[in-house]
Amino acid sequence: MIATVSKRLTDKTNVKSKRDTLKVAASIGRIFERYKIEKFFSWSVGNKGEVTWKLKKDIVAKEEILDGCYIIRTDVDSNTLDKDTVVESYRNLQRVEFAFKNIKTVALELRPMYHKTDDRLKAHIFLTMLAYYIQWHAMEKLSPLFKKDGSHDKQRWTFKHVIERLKSIRNNVCLVKGVIIKSEINQPDKEQQEILDLLGVKLPEPVI
After folding, report:
1. In which region does residue 68 sit, left (phi positive, over 0), alpha (psi from -120 to 50) or beta (all else)?
2. pLDDT for the residue numbered 21
3. Quick check: pTM over 0.85?
């Protein structure tokens, strides 16, 4: 970005015709408003609209030392959390954000809720958290399936796709006056069986 801004400022410097000072200053202001790096430059506009500028190389060099780094601060005493634990806890925030994303929008869809009592709201949230708890453990058990999968546009397996693949396993029950006469479970294919084995799920025996 520094190179881009430098070029644009150079273009303005190379204009020799007389210009309105305020308009030139405003145009430079818009450049820095877009790129957010004005602290690296000193600049001025003369009475005839001539532009002079300079790159603050000392500030650039100072920023380069910490480029790509960030500081994590906490008010927890160092005797309670050492620096490695603080960093690990911060990185775990990504998992928390992923959990809330799943709960609210992706797989479990906590919202919208139309309950009219506090107890029903609490029950709804509890069941959603319980569902995520089950989903998390299922994802952990299915990790071998995901690890051998592709990536990005070549990625096939997601938790949603796993559920879709298992939906075709049906238990057909024949009832006569409420009594089970016969039940039949269609056999899983090779892929479905692999999923069931990873989850540690064994299909019940049919009633004949």
Report:
1. left
2. 92
3. no
